[in-house]
Task: inverse folding
């Protein structure tokens, strides 16, 4: 099963919270935790990670907190997942070469890599703004983005 970690899930929820209710004043971890019904320690950890990677801006002090570093329209879901989860990979061989010891003789390596590219493109096509609006970009199973690229047969 392809499943995001709770940290990634919560991180995307927090990003959506910041995007859905833009505030002229940064929001602190306690406020965001209360709005999202998430534990403050987990929220603090996630916000620091998102700020460290440049997805959030942070301000210190009594009026400090976090705000989006970029417009929600310019922030693909794939990037948020990569920041919180690591590389998008359904299998080890999609992470990179020499990760799996069976790589050289694997009959399904290339198909899995193709599937991984399709999933990654689909996630690149959905932005934080799309999530906040409550829908994706209108992708359907007939969308060219969701078609597996097949090498021409010889």
Result:
């Amino acid at each position: 099963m392809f499943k995001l970690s709770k940290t990634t899930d919560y991180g995307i929820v927090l990003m959506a919270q910041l995007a859905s209710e833009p505030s002229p004043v940064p929001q602190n971890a306690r406020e965001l935790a209360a709005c999202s019904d998430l534990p403050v320690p987990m929220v603090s950890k996630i916000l620091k990670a998102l700020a460290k990677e440049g997805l959030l801006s942070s301000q210190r002090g009594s009026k400090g907190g976090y705000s989006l570093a970029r417009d929600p329209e310019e922030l693909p879901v794939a990037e948020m997942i990569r920041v919180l989860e690591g590389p998008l990979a359904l299998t080890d061989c999609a992470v990179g070469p020499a990760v799996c010891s069976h790589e050289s003789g694997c009959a399904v390596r290339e198909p899995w890599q193709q599937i991984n590219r399709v999933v990654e493109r689909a996630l690149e096509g959905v932005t934080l703004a799309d999530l906040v609006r409550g829908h994706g970009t209108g992708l359907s199973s007939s969308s060219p983005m969701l078609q597996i690229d097949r090498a021409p047969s010889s």
